[in-house]
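In this section we walk through a basic example: taking a raw amino acid sequence and producing a predicted 3D structure, encoded as discrete structure tokens. The instruction is simple. Fold the sequence below.
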Amino acid sequence: MIRRMHGYALSLAAAALLAGSGVAAAQSLPKPEVGPEKPFTPPPRVERTLANGLRVVAVRYGTIPKLSAILTVKAGLAVDPPAKAGLAQFVAEAAQEGTTSRTSEQLKREVFALGASLSGSAGQDSTSFQMRGLTETLPQMLDLLADVVRNPTFPQAEVDLIKTNTAQQLQAQLASPQYVANKLFRQTLFGEHPYARIGVTPETLPSIDRDSLVEYHKTWYRPNHAFLVVVGDAAPDAVFAAAEKAFGGWARGPVPAPKTPALPTLNGRRLVFVQRPNSVQSSVSVGNFAIKRDDERWYTLQLANQIYGAAFDSRLVRNIREEKGYTYSPGSIFQAMAEGGLYRAVADVRNDVTGATIKEIYAEIDKLRAGGPEAEELSDAKQYSRGVFLLQNATQGGFANTINTVNTFGLPKDYPEKYQGLISQPSAEGVKTGAEMLLGSEDSVVVVVGDYTKVKEQLAGFTNIAFVDLTGKPIPEPK
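The resulting token sequence is shown next.
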């Protein structure tokens, strides 16, 4: 045994020496040159509409013998009744737990037997169900997908289980300052607008029952209010034949007219402080409204956000991470939806630099609004955007998501072909104008999750601060 261990130790030592010499050799080698950018040539799309109104988009993308299929219903969290916020997500989850012909266990067994995967999720404006599997299982995959979307039974036991699990998740999420900051930021920014909802809350969970799931499905799940995207190693004719067989009997029907309430207005800087007793850091959010996803200015604002805070070499990162060391990973989020959008700068920082962080967030906003981007950082931002788009669409699933986005938000059909050209067009002056529009300075929302008693003096420049607890309920000023 001792001899074996001795030999093993010698082997490790030898491996370490070899690895060390390899590292030294690698360090002495010159870095390879960055090659030229590769153009993106999207595969052609073929689209047909079934007699019941379901649009089907087929894409022959034969990189591997697999398929990605996404069925999207154009209804999401935004159409939830206010008292039942999160209902759309419950429908997406519970629909996978039993149909008129398959139990929850049978569904999972069939998906597993195909070597496939099935998932469903609800966003602000739509709900999508996605399946991925082998090309040869196309008819079976679409049959399962159609059964889940068309014929869910929402078994009471499964609904009860989802509610129990959700209640536990909500309790756990209250321990996350980042989750609380996102939730309270959205509620503060959008107010009564449907985009304030990010999902179920402790207040709305009790009112979500099986009857409400059935009614939601009956109201919104219609083929004439949905579309199917199939990307993979299959001929379009085979996709259309399988889609007709699986979805052709789905009955079309009337869908309520969409309600598009106006976004609220912002006047001045509004600060909401979320009291989290004994917190050793503050989770800071600063932001305001943004444009709709189909707005032609989206490309310009995308670049402005990237230069400001979305990329790892952005101004916000260089300032409060690299130069000042306030936090490890600050950033900014630009989310454009069907009827509007939002921008949010975020940072988790030590208590003693909470006020200084907010000051620097606004300082970088004002600097970009006043002077615009430098030539090199604008060029880098464009190159980065083109490269990321290429990577995102290098897989069947990634390209399926792109086509799903095009159809969800009514973008031009040639969006994949023109993206790289359009993201390369904005000038420095255009991005400066985009920053003036996107990065609100005087009119904006500030949300801080932390311990007010430890940062109070740093926020003296703010007046009329609103105080809430972790659930968003108003409280007196913490003492």
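Looking at the output, two observations stand out. Residues 78 and 194 are 5 Å apart (CA to CA). The first strand starts at residue 45 and ends at 49. In the next section we compare this with other chains.
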